[in-house]
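Why this split exists: single-chain examples teach little about how molecules sit against one another. For that reason, every record in the complexes split bundles all components of an assembly together and asks for one structure covering all of them. Below is a record exactly as it appears in the raw files.
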Amino acid sequence: MKPIPFDHTWPYERQMGDIYLTSCPYCSQENILVHLSDRALENAKEGFKARANMPCCRKTMIILEADEDYFWTNEKLR
Ligand SMILES: [Zn+2]
């Protein structure tokens, strides 16, 4: 598999077991609580695809991989 380009990444924050985005890549709303379970995040870190629904604009982010700071997705976000 090709490496995922950096413009396909989006940073996330983890606070008290919840996952937040500082801003939504689709509609720019700030402080988005992402509906993604800890388990799904751990799986994404192992390279299993996860879907995160944005509560603000109802877009679905397809997360191909995750690291401690970023989601690596299947689309250009920047
Ligand atoms: Zn949004």
